[in-house]
TrEMBL record:
This is Ribose/xylose/arabinose/galactoside ABC-type transport system permease subunit. InterPro entries: ABC_transp_permease. The chain crosses the membrane at residues 20-37, 49-69, 76-93, 99-120, 127-153, 165-185, 216-239, 271-290. Its main location: membrane.
Length: 327
């Protein structure tokens, strides 16, 4: 039986098929919310979605490569909060913003390094280690600003979150830059090949000469750094240092990565798919807000979408295996 070449090209590759499916889901969501609320399909609203989704895309890009290497980082939401609070505290005390921002990024790198080193050197589950780091980083944020939101920040505090270069808001430009770097690294560099090798079979990667420990630690350091950058984007946009920001952020990041087609078993994933997954999460939240849905129901909707994505991931894997067996 003759197959349509375009359809065969799509279904012949698991990642390609997953990307097409998630893109169709995104388009259906846009169509549905546009029908429910005319304000959804406006340039202003799309700009708001892009700005709100930028921190998610930044952190999810780093989470993608961690999960490709069969890892997981549950601490990103708390690292986001702790890093932004550190930057805000230093800015209030008169430290120049570049140094305050650098301190925030370094804190994220430090927490990421601790996560990676413990996971790799002590052979502890990444779920346990990063769950502990989640509590430590959140506690650090509250210790720095106990039950208080930092205000009185310098005028140029919003230089990242609210400024623009020409018609392009800075958060969107940063997200595009991070995506471009991660896409290039994963697809065009030796280090990117090492990431997929570690996720596919860690022992085989080690025997083939890959420095598995260094690769994994580097990925966790970058995850912490990107969580810190996401925190700076978010906190400079809202104009305050709040230890409560980022609660549940790690679940949104993981949801975006899984919806985007990164395999839970490691070894497979694409940055483009993660971007689409992050936009789906952002569109879902924005559309439900415009439709007047209560925030608590939004959590329910996000949970349903995440479970559905896992089910689709499993079905796609089974379908690819069946096609491989027939071939």
């Amino acid at each position: 039986m003759n197959r349509n070449p375009a359809i065969h090209w799509i279904i012949s590759d698991r990642q390609r098929l997953q990307t097409v499916v998630t893109l169709l889901v995104l388009l259906l969501m846009i169509a549905a919310f546009s029908f429910l609320n005319p304000r959804f399909l406006t340039l202003t609203n799309f700009q708001n979605v892009a700005r709100n989704t930028a921190p998610l895309i930044i952190s999810a890009s780093a989470m993608t490569v961690v999960m490709i290497a069969r890892g997981l980082d549950l601490s990103v939401g708390s690292v986001l909060a702790a890093s932004s609070v550190v930057a805000a505290t230093l800015a209030v005390q008169g430290v120049p913003l570049p140094l305050a921002f650098l301190a925030a990024i370094l804190l994220g790198c430090l927490i990421g390094f601790a996560n990676g080193a413990i996971i790799v050197k002590m052979r502890v589950s990444p779920i346990i280690v990063t769950l502990g780091a989640l509590n430590i980083a959140r506690g650090l944020a509250y210790l720095i600003t106990p039950s208080a939101i930092l205000v009185g920040l310098p005028r140029n505090w919003g230089s990242i979150g609210t400024s623009s270069i020409g018609p392009f808001p800075m958060p969107i430009l940063l997200a595009v830059l991070v995506v471009a770097i991660y896409a290039f690294v994963t697809r065009r560099t030796k280090f990117g090949k090492h990431i997929y090798a570690v996720g596919g079979n860690e022992e085989a990667a080690r025997l083939s000469g890959v420095n598995v420990e260094r690769t994994l630690i580097t990925l966790y350091v970058l995850s912490g750094a990107m969580a810190a950058l996401a925190g700076l984007v978010l906190s400079t946009r809202v104009g305050s240092g709040d230890p409560n920001i980022g609660v549940g952020f790690e679940l949104e990041v993981i949801a975006a990565v899984i919806i985007g087609g990164t395999s839970l078993s490691g070894g497979e994933g694409r940055i483009l798919g993660t971007v689409i997954g992050a936009v789906i999460v952002g569109v879902l939240s924005n559309g439900l807000n415009l439709s007047g849905v209560e925030p608590f129901w939004q959590y329910v909707a996000q949970g349903v979408v995440l479970i559905a994505a896992v089910v689709v991931d499993k079905r796609v894997n089974e379908g690819v295996l069946r096609m491989g067996a027939r071939a």
